[in-house]
Structure formats: C-alpha cells, structure tokens
Design a protein that fits this description.
Elements (H helix, E strand, L loop, with lengths): L2 H16 L25 H9 L5 H18 L3 H21 L3 H17 L7
Helix pairs in contact: 3-4, 4-5
C-alpha cells in the first residue's frame, strides 16, 4: 500500500467514526455505474474527464434530449404533439449526425425515423 492509500483509509475511517460519513446504504455494495449508456464507446474516457471537470459535452446533451423526445412521442396520445416532437427529433438526429458522421450510423437513424413515422398517424383538422 502506498502512502496515499494509507492516508485515504485513515481519513475515511475517522469520518465514519465521527459520523461525518454514512455508509449504511452502500456498505458491501459496489458504487453505481456512472457511465452514460448514450455515450459512444470511443469517447467514454474523454467524456468522463469532462464530466469530472463539470462539463457535459453537447453530443451527450443532444442524445439525452433525443431519448426524452422518443419517450414523449411514444407516450403522448395527442397526434399533433407527437408530430411536433418528431420534427424536433429529426433536427436533433441531423445535428448529431453532423457532429460525428458515420455512414452506417446515418443509415440506422434514417431507418429508425422511418419506423417512427410509420407508427404515427396524423388526422387532418376538420
């Protein structure tokens, strides 16, 4: 054990004894995985460094917004709202594709968008 580990272990033990650190909920359990499932594999380390520094990359924010829009589209009974959200989704997918172009990835997004459009019907106003 190096000196830093010894110091860290001592301080953790002292904090637990003094009641400053509560371990009841986590004792014996692994820490939660903080890896974002929306993050591309080849950028995970860079994003983790940015996250630890207090920054969230725009691509991750856009992917989170895409996931939120997908949930709205699937869960909303109002067809006009779904159509509006689908348009927003299309714009975001285009922005993500431009930020990180990949021929296979764009084709997958187009196929995905086509499937969503097939599932949604829009009644014309009467």
């Amino acid at each position: 054990m190096n000196i830093m580990q010894v110091i860290a272990e001592r301080r953790i033990s002292e904090a637990i004894r003094e009641g400053k650190l509560k371990v009841e909920g986590w004792q014996g359990r692994p820490l939660p995985d903080d890896v974002d499932p929306l993050m591309p594999d080849d950028l995970k380390m860079a994003y983790k460094i940015l996250k630890n520094a207090g920054f969230v990359p725009p691509e991750v924010e856009m992917r989170r917004e895409i996931e939120r829009l997908e949930q709205i589209i699937v869960g909303n009974p109002d067809e006009q709202t779904r159509l509006k959200q689908m348009k927003k989704l299309e714009v975001l997918l285009g922005k993500v594709a431009l930020m990180r172009p990949a021929t296979g990835n764009i084709a997958l997004q187009e196929e995905y968008y086509r499937k969503i459009v097939e599932r949604v019907t829009v009644n014309s106003p009467r």
